[in-house]
Specification:
Helix content of chain A: 55-70%
CATH topology of the largest domain in chain A: Oxidized Rhodanese, domain 1
Order of helices and strands of chain B: HHHHHH
Number of helices of chain B: 6
CATH architecture of the largest domain in chain A: 3-Layer(aba) Sandwich
Distance between the termini of chain B: 19 Å
Oligomer: heterodimer
Largest interface: A-B, 9 and 12 residues
Distance between the termini of chain A: 82 Å
Number of strands of chain A: 7
Helix content of chain B: 55-70%
Shape of chain A: globular
Largest sheet of chain A: 5 strands, parallel
Strand order of the largest sheet of chain A: 1-6-5-2-4
Number of domains of chain B: 1
Number of domains of chain A: 2
CATH superfamily of the largest domain in chain A: Rhodanese-like domain
Shape of chain B: globular
Order of helices and strands of chain A: HEHEHEEHEHEHE
Strand content of chain A: 5-15%
Chain lengths: 153, 154
């Protein structure tokens, strides 16, 4: 009995290894797809949008775009139709913004690029002030401009 | 030679150089006064209602004083006015750096356009304004306040 089990173990190991090799030969493309999907899903869950999702909202006019950079940078260039609500002067600009936009409005906040934290900071402040539908376009203006999407300023 | 041994050539050279520099700076600010107002707002020192007026005042001061330095009209007075502006600019930048604020300094935008110099507040623009302060001092102390087209009455 003991001998029988001992001889079965290497066979099981071999079978298991074969299955792993077969799966890994077809999985790289699948795993990349899964990874991309899961990252996009995780971003959306946390209120972050990628370029294509942001563009879709822009095209359907279903969101209000908020520029979280300083006003003088917004003045030079921004996403077409975006409103300035800078992180640095949020308290001064917010009362006017509050009168114009209801708390139900879907807001997409962006700053210069993924590494700048101003968009997330403004998004947090907006949520704190009662806005429920707040998303962050993490790619920011650089990614938007690089894609050749509409800008003004 | 001027009174305390400062060469009039040196004073003239400084006057022409700084005059041209501040004419460009003031002219550029006047061309886009809204941008300059927004940069001043970013300093978070002045109340909002004062900002457009201050932006206009600073731009006009730079343009007029620069012109007066260039043509040697009340150059001593003009240099003193720009010296005061420099003190305000330096103090404002130091204040913002100490508060951890980061933004454009709004000083000489044409330098960033022409030479790609970064215009964010920090040690470089502060040092540059201190240098301008030092260069303006000889004109303010030893320059003339005469009107160039008026003959000296003896």
């Amino acid at each position: 009995m003991l001998l029988n089990i001992m001889s079965e173990k290497p066979l099981r190991k071999k079978l298991f290894a074969t299955v792993i090799v077969l799966l890994s030969s077809i999985s790289p493309s699948l795993s990349q797809l899964h990874a991309a999907e899961s990252v996009a899903f995780a971003k959306e869950e946390s209120g972050e949008l990628d370029l294509s999702a942001t563009k879709a909202l822009f095209d359907t006019h279903s969101a209000c775009f908020i520029d979280a950079r300083s006003e003088y940078v917004y003045y030079k260039s921004h996403i077409k139709g975006a409103i300035s609500l800078s992180d640095s002067r949020f308290d001064e600009q917010f009362p006017d913004f509050r009168q114009k936009k209801s708390i139900e409005t879907l807001l997409v906040v962006y700053c210069a690029e993924a590494s700048c934290g101003k968009a997330r900071s403004v998004a947090k402040k907006l949520i704190k002030n009662g806005y429920r539908n707040v998303k962050v376009f993490s790619g920011g203006l650089i990614e938007w401009a690089h894609a050749g999407f509409p800008m003004e300023g | 030679m001027t009174r305390i041994g400062f060469s009039s050539v040196l004073i003239t050279a400084l006057r022409l150089m700084l005059g041209a520099f501040f004419i460009m700076s003031g002219y550029e600010k006047l061309l886009d006064l809204k941008f300059f107002s927004l940069v001043i707002a970013e300093y978070q020192i002045l109340p909002s209602f004062l900002i457009p007026g201050i932006a206009l005042l600073v731009s006009l001061c730079e343009l007029l004083c620069g012109t007066m330095l260039l043509i040697n009209l009340f150059s001593r007075f003009s240099a003193s006015v720009i010296l005061c502006l420099m003190v305000i600019f330096i103090a404002s930048m130091i204040n913002n750096v100490m508060r951890g604020l980061g933004h454009d300094c709004g000083c000489f935008e044409f330098l960033s356009r022409w030479y790609g110099l970064k215009e964010e507040i920090g040690i470089v623009p502060i040092a540059r304004d201190i240098l301008f302060f030092i260069l303006l001092l000889p004109i303010a102390l030893f320059g003339s306040n005469r009107i160039p087209w008026k003959k000296d009455q003896k």
